[in-house]
Amino acid sequence: MSLSNREIADIFERCADMLQIRGANIHRVLSYRRAAETIRAVPRDLRVISSEGGLTDLSYIGKTIAAKIDEMLETDQLEFYERLKAEVPEGLVDIMHINGVGPKKAKLFWDQLDITSLAELLSAAEAGKLADLPGMGAKSQQKILDGIEALSRQTGRASIGDALPAAQRILGHLLELPEAQEGALAGSIRRGRETIGDVDILIAADDSGPIMQRFVTMENVGRVLGHGPTKSSVELLSGLQVDVRVLEKARWGTALNYFTGSLAHNVKMRQIALDRGLSLNEHALSPIDDSKTILESAEKILCDNEEKVYTTLGLQYVPPELREDSGEIEAAREGCLPRLITGGDIVADLHMHSTWSDGKHSIREMVDACIQRGLRYIAITDHSRSLGIANGLSIERLLAQAEEVRRLNAELGGEIQVLAGTEMDIKADGGMDYPDEILAQMDFVIASLHSGLQQKRPQVTERLLNAIRNPHVDMIGHPSARQFPNREAVDADWDAVLAAAKERDTILEINANPLRLDLKPELARLAKDLGVLLAINTDAHQIAHLDLMDYGVTIARRGWVEAENVVNSWTFERFEQWLSARP
Ligand code: DGT
Ligand code: CA
Ligand code: CA
Ligand code: ZN
């Protein structure tokens, strides 16, 4: 057994953690952390790169780190790491990963209470022993208990933003083979879930040999978990697990339906089939007798497409994003499924940044990129003054920027409409970051939470309501402020927030960045049901982010959202009218 890229990255990451607990120079700590990040992103086996002498061409990998990689490739271990482990108990690294606990606290628990593992920390906290430590208290002790629980809930699922590009590349790679007649992603990634346990890929082919062969020998495979004629599984160097199944084209519809799931949706489908005297599985719909035994003499119904599975059962076709057994089967039976929004419906993007705050590209560059992507109107919405780390705009700079946007807009002569906007901070005390008379001069005002995210429910709710009730605020950006993988959503009274947004006709954003996906689907659905307006925006900080819109569309679809509910699917004339009718 030799070390994979992922294992090598993990070792560097742990070295960084242990160095930090030991109080090492931060640059030294960072050099290991960055090396780990680089290695996680490398799509090729380090062994191959090393044999070509290319390790030091990778970013953040100098001679020292490269030598350590070679050592691990040759000996399966790292002397430096073994020495660190002798000095710093490994369990402290787990403790450091609790939300709100850093290297200093980990060291404090170790020094004062001799705690060297999560289990020991948990029992100390439960016994109330942490509260008396210097700088701690009952509150921080409770936070640690919450943090340990949150950590144990982390499941090792990949975010869709990481999994989808990788999955699509593999699918494309397999579809290049002449044997592949058809292919698709299935499972949770096809349903558009925000996190993915493993990637499921289906290929229709008569001869599966060459397909499986290519799959298990791809360059980015870390480990082969299984290699058979109908199913193979691998773990990629990134740690992501991928299953490929090969089946006959004649059974494509039942197989795709079965392996797309969800399990709960499948269970209901099978029940409906039974009610109609049919047994449904991945191979076919088979007639059964009264004792539910398959009639071998009767002809099976093969489905080479998914629509046929649904129509045979008397159902409307259910889009994959809805297949969670949350009312879609009942709606399909009544023929009243929503007409879900599609990427093609989106004609605008109302949240993006430029070099004026923390974006990478100038306003002009962003505008040109939006024109290229066929957008009809956009808003430039840089950060506001209290967000110092994001180079937020002072009032003077905000007004200067608005002037520049309007000049540019006039120059463009209607090729695209560019609105002068802002993404204004909702301050920790609930105040708005710009005074009303300034906001009144802007075309489009977003208000967002960026700080005070740990506050209690009444405070957070009040801040959101303050923003919604401000007559100049048009939209709440990324309302729950969650970020994958570990920043949880704020705690707010969402019923109250949605009701206020409805009353004030304030837009709630579905932020399309795969790190955010916020509103989440469940809240988007509640918003839609209440008639709250939505907008799906990229929050682009550089041109490439403009291409992330579809992640947001998928979230909207999982929330049963239709184009009508989403303002940036409206024509500019309609949107402008809506804006001008606001106070
Ligand atoms: P994941 O991977 O945890 O994000 O979620 P899924 O939904 O992709 O689950 P996975 O990969 O275990 O299985 C893919 C699909 O295959 C699942 O959505 C439904 C179907 N499936 C898996 N196991 C069973 C089973 O035992 N019975 C039925 N009816 N379907 C199954
Ligand atoms: Ca899966
Ligand atoms: Ca699977
Ligand atoms: Zn923001």
Keyword list:
583 residues, DNA polymerase, domain 1, 4 domains, binds calcium ion, globular, 7-stranded parallel beta sheet, binds zinc ion, Beta Polymerase, domain 2, 16 strands, alpha/beta, 43% helix, binds 2'-deoxyguanosine-5'-triphosphate, 5-stranded mixed beta sheet, Beta Polymerase, domain 3, 24 helices
Descriptive overview:
This protein is α/β, with parallel strands linked by helices. The chain has 4 domains: 148 residues, Orthogonal Bundle (DNA polymerase, domain 1); 90 residues, Beta Polymerase, domain 2 (2-Layer Sandwich), CATH 3.30.460.10; 83 residues, DNA polymerase, thumb domain (Beta Polymerase, domain 3, 2-Layer Sandwich), CATH 3.30.210; 239 residues, Alpha-Beta Barrel (TIM Barrel). It is built from 24 helices and 16 strands. The strands form 4 sheets. Strands 10-11-12-13-14-15-16 form a 7-stranded parallel beta sheet. Strands 2-4-7-6-5 form a 5-stranded mixed beta sheet, with helices on both faces. It has a two-stranded antiparallel ribbon with strand order 1-3. Helix 19 links the parallel strand 12 and strand 13. The protein is globular. The chain starts with a helix and ends with a helix. The model has no long low-confidence stretch (mean pLDDT 94). The structure holds 2'-deoxyguanosine-5'-triphosphate (DGT), calcium ion (2 copies) and zinc ion.
